[in-house]
From TrEMBL:
InterPro entries: Aldo-Keto_reductase, NAD(P)_OxRdtase_dom_sf, NADP_OxRdtase_dom
Protein's UniProt name: IN2-2 protein
Originating species: Paraglaciecola chathamensis S18K6
Key word Phosphoprotein present: no
GO cellular component: cytoplasm
Signal peptide bounds: 1-26
Domain named NADP-dependent oxidoreductase: residues: 53-347
Length: 375
C-alpha cells in the first residue's frame, strides 16, 4: 500500500518505458437533500460547496516512513475532522491502491450525506488485482469500470468530485469529459476536475464539460501554479485544491538541515531535500518560525493560512494520520493576516529562492501533459 508519491515513483518506472516506445442535466443524486454547513468556514469550488480546509487521507494506508497506521485510529481522525467542521475529504484509487478509499468509506459512513468525497482515476491499475500496469489509462470504458469500484469501496452511490489524476497522453480530453458526462447523467458523479494537467488541456476540458476544481501541488515551498494555472482558474471560475500544502512536512518545522530520510521514503528522491539544497532551503522554515512566534501559531498554521489568503476559491487538503495535527491544521482557518502583514510575508517569501526539484524527472514527466487533439 502506497501514498501519492510512492505510487508515482513505483508506477513511473513502468510507465517511462511506455511513454518512450452539452451541458449536463442535474442528476437525481445531485438533487438529494444535503446538509453541508453554510458557515463562514466554507468555500466554493466552482458550484461545489466545501469546508475551507479539507482532509487528505492518502497516507492513512501507509505513512511517509512506510509504516502502516492503525485503521481504527484513522477512522477516528476522519470522524473527528467532521466534528471540527471538515466536510471535504480527498482520496484516489491509486492510494493503496484502493485501500485508502475503503478506509475513507468506512470512516464517513455515519455522515456520508453531509460531506463531499473527492477521488481520482487515471493510473493504469488492474481493477481486479490492484496491480500497477505501465503508464496511464483514461480510456472511457476504463474510467467507468474504475468508478464502479470506487462506489463500492467508498460505500456510496455517487462521487461528489471526480478528478483525472494525470492526463493520459493517448486519450483526447474530450473523450474523458464524455465518459464523465455519462457518469453524471447516471447520477454516479456530481462534479469533476483535473490534476497536474497542461493549461490547454484544462481549457479544452472546461469547454467540453465545466470543470469544478483543479488539484495540483502548491505551497510556500512550491509556487509553480501561480504562473499560469491560478490565473486561468480565476478566469474560468474553477476552484483550486492544493495537494501537499505543507510541503511533505517541510513547512511544519519537523524537518531540519540534518534530516535524512529512511529507505522507502519518497522524499529521499526529491533533490530539494538533498543535504546541500536542504540546508539552503531552511531559510523558508526560519521565516515560518518567525511568523509562528509573531502570530502565536504553529508553522503549519502559518503556511495553511497563507494559502487561504491567496484566493477565496483555494481549498487546501493537508493530510495527516495524527488527530492533534488534524485539529491544528483545521484551526488554521481562524488565523488571519492584515493587508500589511500579508504584504510583508509575501515580500519575504519572494526573496527566498528554493533550490532543487519537487519531483525526480521520471515522475515530473507526468505533470503538465497536454492531451492529444480529438480527430
Amino acid at each position: 500500500m502506497q501514498n501519492r508519491r510512492q505510487f508515482l515513483l513505483s508506477g513511473a518506472s513502468l510507465a517511462a518505458a511506455s511513454l518512450l516506445s452539452t451541458n449536463i442535466q442535474a442528476s437525481t443524486s445531485e438533487q438529494k437533500k444535503r446538509t453541508i454547513s453554510t458557515s463562514p468556514n466554507t468555500r466554493k469550488l466552482g458550484k461545489l460547496q466545501v469546508s475551507s480546509i479539507g482532509l487528505g487521507v492518502q497516507n492513512m494506508s501507509r505513512k511517509y516512513d512506510t509504516s502502516v497506521p492503525n485503521r481504527q485510529e484513522m477512522h477516528q481522525v476522519i470522524r473527528s475532522a467532521y466534528e471540527e467542521g471538515v466536510t471535504f475529504f480527498d482520496a484516489a484509487e491509486a492510494y493503496g491502491p484502493f485501500e485508502v478509499e475503503r478506509i475513507l468509506g468506512e470512516g464517513v459512513k455515519p455522515f456520508r450525506d453531509n460531506i463531499v468525497i473527492a477521488t481520482k482515476f487515471g493510473w493504469n491499475i488492474d481493477q481486479q488485482t490492484g496491480a500497477r500496469l505501465p503508464g496511464l489509462n483514461s480510456r472511457p470504458a476504463h474510467i467507468k469500470m474504475v468508478v464502479e469500484g470506487m462506489l463500492s469501496r467508498l460505500q456510496t452511490d455517487r462521487i461528489d468530485l471526480l478528478y483525472q489524476h494525470r492526463v493520459d497522453p493517448d486519450v483526447p480530453i474530450e473523450d474523458v469529459a464524455g465518459a464523465v458526462a455519462d457518469l453524471m447523467n447516471e447520477g454516479k458523479v456530481l462534479h469533476w476536475g483535473l490534476s497536474e494537467m497542461g493549461i490547454n488541456t484544462l481549457k479544452r476540458a472546461h469547454a467540453t464539460l465545466p470543470v469544478s476544481a483543479v488539484q495540483s501541488e502548491y505551497s510556500m515551498l512550491w509556487r509553480g501554479p501561480e504562473k499560469s494555472v491560478l490565473p486561468l482558474c480565476e478566469k474560468l471560475g474553477i476552484g483550486f485544491v492544493p495537494w501537499s500544502p505543507l510541503g511533505v512536512q517541510f513547512l511544519t518545522g519537523w524537518i531540519d538541515e540534518n534530516t535524512r530520510f529512511s529507505q522507502g521514503d519518497f522524499r529521499a528522491t526529491e533533490s530539494r531535500f538533498n543535504p546541500e539544497n536542504l540546508a539552503h532551503n531552511m531559510s523558508l522554515v526560519k521565516l515560518l518560525m518567525q511568523w509562528s512566534e509573531r502570530k502565536n501559531a504553529s508553522p503549519a498554521q502559518i503556511a495553511l493560512a497563507w494559502l487561504l489568503h491567496q484566493k477565496p476559491w483555494i481549498v487546501p487538503i493537508p493530510g495527516t494520520t495524527s488527530l492533534a495535527h488534524m485539529q491544528q491544521n483545521t484551526a488554521s482557518r481562524d488565523l488571519s493576516f492584515s493587508t500589511s502583514e500579508l504584504r510583508e510575508l509575501n515580500d519575504s517569501l519572494a526573496s527566498i529562492a528554493i533550490q532543487g526539484q519537487r519531483l525526480p524527472d521520471f515522475v515530473q514527466v507526468f505533470s503538465d501533459v497536454e492531451a492529444p487533439e480529438k480527430l
